[in-house]
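Q: My labmate handed me this sequence with no annotations at all. I'd like to see what the chain might look like in three dimensions before we decide whether it's worth expressing. Could you predict it?
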Amino acid sequence: MFHGSMVALVTPMQEGGELDFDELHQLVEFHVANGTNAIVVAGTTGESPTLSEKEHCELIRRMVEMAAGRVPVIAGTGSNSTREAIDLTRCAMEGGADACLLVVPYYNNPAQEGLYQHFKTIAEAVAIPQILYNVPGRTICDILPETVERLSHISNIIGIKEATGDLQRAREIMERCGERLDVYSGDDATAMELMLCGGKGVVSVTANLMPKPMHEMCAAALRHDREAAQAINNRLMPLHRDLYVEANPIPVKWALHEMGLISTGIRLPLTLLSSQYHETVRSALQDSGAL
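A: Here is what I predict for the chain of 291 residues:
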């Protein structure tokens, strides 16, 4: 249903932490003009843990209005509370989102049966296309391929964002689920290889900064043109690598500010990029052609 470069969009904020919808609109226009295939709003790169439910819903609604049908909108609606995830997912559906992205519940570390019941309950409660999101490095909880296979039989669970960077894991999910479930990379550094072996796209942090090259790299990989995809990916690799010198989205928000696209606002407990990393990220921007 969704293919190619899907940006894990940051949430622009003023210096005091208030949401900045003017800057959000500028980012939307930036991505539409540069070929981004879908926008993921209010995801974890968008600092969703610090958004109130009211802000979360407003952010989704405003994003849908700004996109105006020109690019699909995927709303981050995951939570470690099943009830809260249902509420946010319903809000996204009512706000006009095209799909929802639901992260594996963090901290409470459910068993595989708990994960199955969590996602099954949300999918049955809200009839909107839903994409699972597995990022055990951040959630300390890993949804295993056999559980993904069980969930793939639920009609509105349409994909998984697999952010382990483990290509063998992605291949196993594809083998188990076949055409029932699309597999997307959540790891920019290995996204090209995942698409070359059958993945459908990437939910990308790098795309915040370089949307056109990410779109072109994904298009080449999806048509199995390794040479063209590799040439673009090599150029982007400094960003794939150095946007994680501190916890995401700290470096990418600093980089966007360095490019003149957003203000410096970020919400506690996240803080501005440490000065010791400024030159590292700036060099990555220069080496990739973003600056």
